């Protein structure tokens, strides 16, 4: 065991860090996170961490670059304070969609972020529902890619018992494995949206592969960004006879017109987790329902700290 357990956080998602501490029965270690007038970050750890087992909870969500820099500076500060071990708990891993070269002179941004964190002093990474699983290979350090499925499945089972037959829907071919895993655990049907993407952040849903007629269709994805894909999928499902359409996604990025689109969409409910703090966005869309992953992350942190198995949390 690596010293005492300490939980730190930055400015991206303090509520989640507090909830994790509540599950673990500990207090958040004070950390100063300020911004100088020229925009530079100022970080200072407010307690002795020498030899301790420290977990930094910080999603690299918007503003992505600010939060990424904040995380790197916190890791460096801990390393220079002679920390025993430091684990970066990054529920939402920014730049995860840039995991390969899509043009001759383009970077692999997800790999660059991995290098940043490793160089800054990270010993281990805990994250949730990586957009691309192969990003784990960008790190030489251990990576625990947890799944939000246990949290989501509890809620979906209640929907199943309340409303009757459901069908899990993948909004594109790439998400079929995720939707199939949900469908298997819920003993429900599976459908796929055939989609053609013309430009980044723009998608056109074409037609449904599978039977959704007179069923509760639940679209499953790892994130909602501008909500274009999701809302187009909802329309297609309704046009194909679905009785009701809901959505289930881990990371509520919700950039640009996403909130307006969801409010005006055919969805009756959109289930998300708290990997990204929504703030005022919750007040502008009553279709959003947040399910906390604090308990899941707390179990992972406890198991890592006590050198127990983390794989028992994977479903």
From TrEMBL:
Residue stretches making up the Ribose-phosphate pyrophosphokinase N-terminal domain: 5-121
Keyword Glycosyltransferase part of the UniProt annotation: no
Note on cofactor: Binds 2 Mg(2+) ions per subunit.
SUPFAM superfamilies tied to this protein: PRTase-like
Gene3D superfamilies, per database record: 3.40.50.2020
GO biological process annotation, one example: ribonucleoside monophosphate biosynthetic process
This protein's GO CC annotations: cytoplasm; ribose phosphate diphosphokinase complex
Residues annotated for Mg(2+) binding in this entry: 131, 172
Main location: cytoplasm
Reactions it catalyzes: D-ribose 5-phosphate + ATP = 5-phospho-alpha-D-ribose 1-diphosphate + AMP + H(+)
EC identifiers of the protein: 2.7.6.1
Top-rank taxon, per record: Bacteria
Compartment(s): Cytoplasm
Binding positions (ATP): 38-40, 97-98
Involved pathway(s): Metabolic intermediate biosynthesis; 5-phospho-alpha-D-ribose 1-diphosphate biosynthesis; 5-phospho-alpha-D-ribose 1-diphosphate from D-ribose 5-phosphate (route I): step 1/1
Sites where the protein binds D-ribose 5-phosphate: 197, 221, 225-229
SMART domains named in the record: Pribosyltran_N (SM01400)
Coiled coil location: none
GO terms, molecular function: ATP binding; kinase activity; magnesium ion binding; ribose phosphate diphosphokinase activity
Statement: the UniProt record of this protein carries the keyword Cell membrane: no
Complexes and interactors: Homohexamer.
Family, per entry: Belongs to the ribose-phosphate pyrophosphokinase family. Class I subfamily.
Protein name: Ribose-phosphate pyrophosphokinase
């Amino acid at each position: 065991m690596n010293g005492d357990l300490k939980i730190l956080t930055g400015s991206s998602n303090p509520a989640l860090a507090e909830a994790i501490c509540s599950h673990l029965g500990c207090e958040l270690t004070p950390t100063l996170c300020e911004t100088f007038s020229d925009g530079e970050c100022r970080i200072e750890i407010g307690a002795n961490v020498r030899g301790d087992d420290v977990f930094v909870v910080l999603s690299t969500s918007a503003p992505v670059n600010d939060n990424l820099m904040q995380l790197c500076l916190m890791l460096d500060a801990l390393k220079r304070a002679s920390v025993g071990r430091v684990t970066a708990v990054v529920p939402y891993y920014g730049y995860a969609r840039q995991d390969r070269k899509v043009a001759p002179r383009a970077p692999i941004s997800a790999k660059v972020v991995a290098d940043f964190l490793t160089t800054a002093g990270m010993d281990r990474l805990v994250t949730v529902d990586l957009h691309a699983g192969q990003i784990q290979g960008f790190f030489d350090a251990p990576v625990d890619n947890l799944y939000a499925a246990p949290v989501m499945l509890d809620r979906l089972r209640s929907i199943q018992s309340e409303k009757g037959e459901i069908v899990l829907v993948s909004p594109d071919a790439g998400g079929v494995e995720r939707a199939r895993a949900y469908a298997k655990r819920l003993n429900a049907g599976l459908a796929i949206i055939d989609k053609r993407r013309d430009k980044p952040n723009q998608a056109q849903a074409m037609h449904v592969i599978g039977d959704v007629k007179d069923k509760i269709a639940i679209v499953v994805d790892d994130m909602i960004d501008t909500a274009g894909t999701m809302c187009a999928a909802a329309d297609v499902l309704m046009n194909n006879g679905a009785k009701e359409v809901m959505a289930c996604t881990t990371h509520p990025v919700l950039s640009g017109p996403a909130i307006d689109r969801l409010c005006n969409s055919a969805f009756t409910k959109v289930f998300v987790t708290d990997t990204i703090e929504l703030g005022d966005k919750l007040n502008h869309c009553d279709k959003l329902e947040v399910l906390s992953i604090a308990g899941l992350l707390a179990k992972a942190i406890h198991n890592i700290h006590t050198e127990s198995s983390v794989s028992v949390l994977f479903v």
